[in-house]
Amino acid sequence: MELTIKGQQIISLPLRAKSKMARRIFEIDLLRGILIILMILDHLAYDFGILAPDFFIVSSAPTWLADLSAWSEQYWYEAWRLNFRYVIIVLFFLLVGLSSTLSRNSLKRGMLIFGFGCVISIFAYLGATVFETNMFIFFGIISCLGLSLIVYSLLRKLVVLLTGSARVWKWFALFLALLFMACGYWMRSEIATISLNSENWWLVINGRYTPTIPTHGYVMNEFTPFDYDFATKLDIILGRSWYGVDFAGLFPYLGYAFLGGFIGELLYVNKQSLIFKSANLQEHIVEKIFRPLTYIGSKTIYIYLLHQLVLGLFAFLIFYSCGTPLR
Predict the structure, then answer these.
(1) pTM over 0.85
(2) Which residue ranges make up each domain of the chain?
(3) Is 7 helix (H, G, I), strand (E, B) or coil?
């Protein structure tokens, strides 16, 4: 703070400067916003086509609702949808790694995301056992995102500490990205239950031929969740076994997080948009046009955590309000 009289500086007192909010990167928030909307639409189809029939007798629903449910179920198992879903997941992991280079404390952020993933798994288990349906999640996408960010952050701190150079880490991150992705795809090809050829290789890439292990069964006509040993749980985490309704093994997705980190270190070293060089995006008409998407992109983690609860409740109310009988 400066005190001046008639233009003459009399006293100058150092005050703590107000911390500025981290500058948002337009193109990253825009891509996040697009991806999260596509994910919401995808999960809405799941709620109407897969989840709702577990609770309602869909054949007794109004014709338009029964047709919507049937279309949603057919869409959910379409080959193009399975492939497109894989692309979206890969982009999410790339963005998580890239964003870690822009975050002040990516390790803390990773631990928070992983913690949310654990909470989701607990609630999914409770929901599955209470409603006696397959809603199980052991190591879902959110858990994998969080753990990937933790691993990336810890290794980055270690390498920079030992070498004293972020440049060394940048290229080491690229090496690890390629190594982890190669390990992941080798693992998938090794455990695939089919012979690879020119027509089905992509289904191995997107993990759909990963062996699926059952989540539950009926013992004495009672719904009973299966409990697996440590080795089986480790296989689920690594990506060698498919479990539950939301699954993302650590390999090869960890590699994509590292690849995103490399891209961030390479392109966003100044933590500045590659599209808008001005610090004030409010001046750009393009930013104003896409502001709804960039705003959604800036709130991705909150939307990811809460959207399925809202969508599931929405689907339930639609079927219930239309007089569809419960099972």
Answers:
(1) yes
(2) 24-102+293-327, 104-267
(3) coil
